[in-house]
Design goal:
201 residues; alpha+beta; Glutaredoxin; seven-stranded mixed β-sheet; two-stranded antiparallel ribbon; 6 helices
């Protein structure tokens, strides 16, 4: 294959991938997914509300940091009480770390006293790939107009240590507070940290 043809193919692939990549400031891609109670949720049905997407894997030490400390549950309770829709999304494929059945997820939510609006089961990774979710946790925030306003880490302490939570800057709360007050989000993107999302191969 000649060099020009290879170059042309690479450019085409880059254009295709960038066309589907989610970008802050652009409309968040719509999706539908079934939750752990068998209910169907569509992002477009939540128009007019802030929506948080939280990628989750209960076997990942970075996820466990935020759940075993109660940090993620505090965020869920705080923001859902203010009308924010909070979707926990599980994109682990069957046989991979973090994969759960609906019953297992409901038992986990009860055990951890977690209170997202819903836990969305995404074993084929369709929602995860749509958003290019890379890590657990990986956080996204969508504003009431359906525009993506945050994509990145939960906070600025990329460790598995629970002790680091107290001194961390929580990017999710900061972005929600700013946006709810009608201000621009000061830190709209950050590098997500955690375990890689365990997609089906």
């Amino acid at each position: 294959m000649n060099r020009n043809l290879i170059h042309g193919l690479m450019v085409t692939l880059l254009l295709i991938s960038s066309a589907y990549a989610v970008k802050v400031g652009e409309p968040a891609p719509d999706f539908q997914a079934t939750d752990s109670n068998g209910q169907m949720h569509k992002l477009s049905s939540e128009h007019g509300k802030f929506v948080v997407l939280e990628w989750h894997n209960n076997g990942c030490p970075y996820t466990r940091k935020h759940y075993e400390s109660g940090n993620m549950q505090r965020l869920q309770k705080d923001w859902t009480s203010k009308g924010v829709v909070w979707f926990t999304v599980i994109s682990s494929a069957p046989g991979q770390q973090g994969y759960v059945t609906a019953q297992q997820e409901n038992e986990y939510l009860k055990q951890m006293n977690a209170s997202p609006t819903a836990a969305l089961l995404d074993p084929q990774g369709e929602v995860g790939r749509l958003y290019s979710a890379k890590t657990t946790p990986h956080m996204f925030i969508i504003n009431p107009a359906g525009v993506l306003i945050y994509d990145g880490a939960i906070d600025d302490k990329a460790t598995t240590e629970q002790a680091d939570i107290a001194g961390a800057k929580n990017y999710v709360s900061q972005a929600l507070e700013e946006a709810a007050a009608g201000k621009p989000v000061g830190m709209p993107t950050s590098r997500p940290y955690g375990c890689s999302v365990k997609y089906a191969h």
